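S1.2 Input.
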Amino acid sequence: MSMAARFLDSLKATYQYYHSAMGNVLVALPAAAAALVTVALLAPEAESTMVAIGRLRELIRPAHLFLAVFLPGAAATVYLVMRPRAVYLVDYACFRTAPNCRVPFATFLEHARQVPTLTERSVRFMTRLLERSGLGEETCLPPAHHYIPTYKYCTLEAARAEVDLVVFSAVDELFAKTGVSPDDVDILVVNCSLFCPTPSFVDMIVNRYKLRSDIRSMHLSGMGCSASLISIGLARNLLQVAPHGARALVVSTETITPNYYVGNERAMLLPNCLFRMGGAAALLSTSPAKARFRLKHVVRTLTGAEDSAHHCVFQEEDEHGSIGINLSKDLMTIAGNALKANITAIAPLVLPASEQLKFALAFIARKALSGRVKPYIPDFRAAFEHFCIHAGGRAVIDELQRSLCLSDEQVQASRMALHRFGNTSSSSVWYELAYVEAKGRMRRGDRVWMIGFGSGFKCNSAAWECISPARDADGPWATSIHRYPVDIPDVLKH
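S1.3 Output.
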């Protein structure tokens, strides 16, 4: 189909949508009122009819007619025009890790010992980290990290190869699952924080799938592990101004290859131990056809105006010039504050009236008594059946479980995703959603809360409602779901 033909079809669809929404209101209501008056005036001239007409003339005056007919019609028109369109998740797909990319702890530590700049003290530190991390023995790293010494093979070409492997595999599976052609994609949003090549990820995807020349495309970089929910919010906003039924492809990943830290700063060694290869692709649309979830809310909280929050996840050079991500010792405190702010914003949107009342009264009491009243944490179990907490690490999951008073089963998806895949950055919430569906726990009407944390510092949320659960467990968990859940000890001893 030519570009001109597609433009005409889009224009026609837009015209039909607004014509049916506004025209019916503006025409039908005045016409009905006029018909009522006409029938009354043309009725037989019986005495009772004349009396009725006289009374009708007394009642229906121009101002009354305007208020009764045209003003509601105008209000209805404004409402229809300004009302945001519903946005749906057609489907999603996660990158399926291959056995040849698996990195057991022993392999990881052996490779670390071959890096001449890493001291034995640093290797022992990473050993203790791994034993307490909550990661399992099947997490995967990109091909470049399987060579010795690792840092010599973390080239630009190897980083692009990881993008090809992870991103294209996820997008291929998504197109296969949905039956959507690449030509049908109107919007493309990609997020990857630490690797931003030229041409960008969106250009790589456009070139691979030969997407249309008029596609709206964005690459989000430096947004941290919560960037997937930022991408979802951006795609939702773009769909509001696109023709009805438009489709948005959202791709979330983090390229690990060029980000191997070879220094000895402990705060910068954590990412080496926690981050693993992964990615996800999701297809959004304003058409409910074949949709599996409906997007209810996206709430973003940014605390970066505070210096401590801004610097708590910071890419920098150590004293020897080695580049890495420095994770502050105050990270959990800052994450807790960001979570409280996000809860305050999302609570009125999702909580039942009883929980909102308790929350409001506690909030007023704290303000009136200068914080001497203990804050009330709403029971979000009354608002959601499933929780997908960013698998940033065991401490992150523990803190959210404690703060939100969640059960072990409600955080199971997060713990198992961390164990099986590691911290896959922004895509981790999609692996968790896939876990819930692979276990057969998703039901029509179930509500899902995705929570992500990221540099800046950010806490972002997305609320979904299930329309159609997955029919099978095919996905990233297909070969391992029968083994989960597994017991994860506090300290893993070899």
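S1.4 Remarks. The chain has one domain: 87-483.
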